[in-house]
Amino acid sequence: MEGALSEAEDSGLRKLAAEMRPQLVRFIVSRGCEPDEAEDVYQDLFVKLAGWRGGPVANARAYLFQMTNNLVRDLRRGARRQQGRDDGWARSQYGQDLMSDPQPTPEHTALDRDFLAKVERALAAMPPRTVEILRLYRVDGVGQKAIASRLDISLSAVEKHLQRAYRELQLVRATLEGETRAAHMEDSHV
């Protein structure tokens, strides 16, 4: 039977693989596999040898090392394909930028708290009626005409109160943006 191993040759390769087990497992681990993975690859080698049908092997030890190396490469290729599938799924579920953490950094949280404190101070410095109109319009979603009717003032007065509130809040924003720009420039010069 040319091209097929005799039963004696086949059992000889498996017997040699069993004798070389410690060397083959070390070889697999040296290729970057974890010890548990190395045992799995070694078992895959035995499965492959059980179904192997090939010609005579001139250097059986080298052949077993090459078979083992090919199994490790197959394992790595499979892991890369799996990683690609997992990455594709994650991007489809959570968006393309998987590197950014949706949680704010402590620095971002501190900046947001500072911004909120400045807005609250600006609101506290405004006349109470202006704050009330701003809250009704921007927070509660009440229309300007409805606010004018509810507070028994003209629509023009409502618009003026909102303009005043927006001007004050824009000043706070401009101040914060200036501080942020200055901090970034300072960081880039360090």
UniProtKB/TrEMBL annotation:
RNA polymerase sigma-70 region domain sequence ranges: 18-81
Keyword set, alphabetical order: Sigma factor, Transcription, Transcription regulation
Region of interest (Disordered), ranges: 78-109
Coiled coil: none
Compositional bias (Basic and acidic residues): 78-89
Gene3D superfamilies for this protein: 1.10.1740.10, Winged helix-like DNA-binding domain superfamily/Winged helix DNA-binding domain
Domain RNA polymerase sigma factor 70 region 4 type residue range list: 118-169
Sequence similarity: Belongs to the sigma-70 factor family. ECF subfamily.
Protein name in the entry: RNA polymerase sigma factor
Organism classification: Bacteria, Pseudomonadati, Pseudomonadota, Alphaproteobacteria, Sphingomonadales
